[in-house]
Amino acid sequence: MSTATSDNVLHAVAGAGGGVLSMVLTYPLITLSTRSQVESKRARSSVPDAIRRIIQREGISGLYAGLDTAVFGISVTNFVYYYWYEWSRAAFEGAATRSGRSRTKLTTLEAMAAGAFAGSATVLITNPIWVVNTRMTARKRTPLLDRSLPSGGLPTLQNPSGVTLAKPKAPTTIGTIRDLFNEGGLRAFFAGVIPALVLVANPILQYTIFEQLKNMLERRRKRSVTPQDAFVLGALGKLVATALTYPYITVKARMHMAEKGKRIGLAAGLRKIVKEEGWSGLYNGIGPKLVQSVFTAAFLFAFKDALFAFTQTALANRRAQLKLKAK
């Protein structure tokens, strides 16, 4: 394996690991944001009320609904994205070197092109995972009849029907995949792929801002950025990117939740939300989403840089040991 390919894989693995760690730390905020995005205007509530309602109905685990698919999704998403982003970046830097350009660092346009290529490939590969995750995170759990208690209990003021319901059952990954396939076949797994491709602009903006700020900081300090620097720069990049692209995130979530026969296109989805809920409907759940996105991106960049440096050092030490043994 060549050094360039090895570095691409290292970046991809570090990105996947950083993504998983940051996802686990901020997942309750993702749950709150996703549920707000798919709720109608009438059902909207404050963040504390939403947390209280989820815990009362589903327990603490309700805040982590769909975490298994999210962890799998973010690891695949980040691995694919970082591999192709680093591949694209290396190609641009190689071209700059061959052309005799004084600076091989990516220009803004080159960073955006690399992000667009990596982001588009990532969306097409991972969209089915995120459709399943949105369904598991947002769909209400169905209360079940408690079979452990005798049926036909006496009605009370609190329970006029006399039927005792057990704690709602969480949807399983396999069950959600089966339901999606029954609803619309393979096509159902690519619901929302158009707004997702539009949302490639989000990581493009995020990584372009991050790269340019990073280059600026490294030129000023004449050294590589630290994980602490990456934390702050990653947070700034994600804050701007999410604020600009949030309406498309809302439409994508609605399209993931739409059942067969009720699916509509991107433009129609935007018009429908504005007509029924006003412009504010496009920004349902933006509070938790901004907090989650900023912290996720900040942790991701900090963890990724630390994991990359650790893995690179560990591999270099391993190679040195193998050379010594060979002698």
From TrEMBL:
Gene3D superfamilies: Mitochondrial carrier domain. It is a multi-pass membrane protein. Keywords: Membrane, Mitochondrion, Mitochondrion inner membrane, Peroxisome, Repeat, Transmembrane, Transmembrane helix, Transport. PROSITE patterns: SOLCAR. Its main location: membrane. It holds the Pfam family Mito_carr. Solcar repeats lie at residues 6-91, 106-216, 229-310. The chain crosses the membrane at residues 12-32, 62-84, 111-132, 188-210, 230-249. It is found in: Peroxisome membrane. Belongs to the mitochondrial carrier (TC 2.A.29) family. This is Peroxisomal membrane protein PMP47B.
